[in-house]
Amino acid sequence: MTSLFPDIATLRSQLDSRAVSATELAQEHLKRVKAASSLNAFVDVNEAETLAQAKAADARLAAGETAPLLGIPLAHKDIFVTTGFKSTAGSRMLANYQSPFNAEVVQRLALAGAVSLGKLNCDEFAMGSSNENSAFGPCHNPWHAHAVPGGSSGGSAAAVAAGLVPVATGTDTGGSIRQPSAFCGVTGIKPTYGSCSRYGMIAYASSLDQAGPMARSVEDCAIMLGAMAGFDPKDATSLKMDVPDWEAALNADLRGKKVGIPREYRMEGTDQAILDSWEQGKAWLKDAGAEIVDVSLPHTKYALPAYYIVAPAEASSNLARYDGVRYGLRDLPDGSGLQDMYAATRAAGFGDEVKRRILIGTYVLSAGFYDAYYTQAQKVRALVARDFERAFQECDVILAPTTPTASFPLGSMNEDPLTMYLNDVFAVPASLAGLPAMSVPATINADGLPLGLQLVGKPFDEQGVLNAGLAIQQRAGFTAQPVKWW
Ligand code: GLN
Asked: How many angstroms does the Cα of residue 426 sit away from the middle of ligand 1?
């Protein structure tokens, strides 16, 4: 391979010209995964399965077939169920779970020709912002081994940043694609809610969960998203819409576009380097031809508290299915009955953060508290969505930081879940509103850690988000790479 960190276009032309085979690409990347095992980005690999997929891709290539990702290696966040690999959701509960089917997103990527290298570490059931809640141990940030990669799609971000895979899948419920992308210096987009099927995506909070790609460029995100998105009758919240050709329509000329700067995102506690990069981002988009306008999202400060009611409420309901009867772990102490089995299984299978969320969720949904918490949070959610609707009457896309800080040291927030939750303060509003949102790398801070900028778009305007992201990518010239892990 000419480049050690190739993009999809480069790999495609090498595959098309037979300079390299899908099998060779898979072998090379498997070698890297093995060499970088101390990163703990992968929770399952299965060489035989990967090589079988690569062989099938080589046969399709030899038959003259063209498919957008034919022969391209990738890996999946271990929230997507897959055949051929374990499907654990980062939990002891599903530590040995083998799915009998592929998630729809996984299936679509396979049809598009992608070759899976395995499953990527993540916070248990996607709950977290640091990947420290994984039952399989924390994943490390390739830029600094003692720093977190972000979460919950930490393994995806780390694997892409470290060059173990060119692209990966992630999921975002309240920032889990964008925040780790920012922490690891990669690009990740969460599309409009309903764009990618949730079928086979292990559920956290169903009204928020959304799949998306993580990659080293905006172009690669556009290609991946094109293969992942589209209507699926197996998901009741899937949108009936044609998938545009985002890759073909990429255009970094922003003349005639207005970029909104939400004044409520100037929050105390945000790193100065992040505020500076936000200013720089404005200048870049202006340079690309956009007009910068101030906008207001007045309910921003209520978004995070509302999210931490809605998400645990849905989680408590979704996670009721792990009862020792149907899926995964069963703990049946001697002589015990059904109730004892439920209790023992759930006590042994779930980690602390998941238990915390189940308790909070059960409480806010309980009789007498439901209206005070859950109904109220849903009203706030509607107000947050309305804020964006109003703002988008004055602008086409919103520019904000992805996170208030850069990556933090492993273990530094273990005792303080609330501070950890605050890391999602800029990401959660777009999730509550179901809007497309992306993080693109902007710069490196004084500690050598990457910082990201976030773009939020109107519903279904992934193109507008990608185009503004491309304008930033072209100007940021973010070519730095972490230390070599392989
Ligand atoms: N960090 C947030 C949470 O813990 C978001 C997680 C996610 O988007 N999956 O809920």
From this structure: 12
